[in-house]
Amino acid sequence: MEATTIKKEGKCLTFRLGKEEYGVEILKVREIVGLMDITAVPKTSAHVRGVVNLRGKIIPVVDLRRKLGLPETAAARENCIIIVIVQNRQVEALVGLLVDAVNEVLWVSEGEVDSLPDIGDSESMDFVRGLAKVRGRVIILLDIDKVVHQQDLRGLEQLEKLTGSNENKEVSK
Q: What is the pTM of this model?
């Protein structure tokens, strides 16, 4: 892992998937919403749960448990969707991340972040920015642009075109 990708410091939103704690850069977070009805969309990747209608905007939802290969669990009251901004070439897209629970916003300093130890195929783990050691905890810092791959975004762009054209039809009625 390149040292430049883990030298950033700043605020991050932490959340849980199982017993592990993860973090994403706070500037990538648009909002956090409670669990809501997710409409399944046929022929999408297994980790794409579907879409939600958030105040008239259709937003795809990625199940982070599925995406990261973690075992599924039953739905709980603490489950929520983190709406993040993902960079797709020169365009930004909104994507929902289904997580077990949101913990807190915290400041991570440069000295608290270590690179990922050599534990196997580093290319398949390139979405991990580093490991933060904060208050006796280890937080896995994610590069959300790499978690949601370009391949995922191409499918989401097609979905947005379909839903965008439907919104335009509704407005013109």
A: 0.81
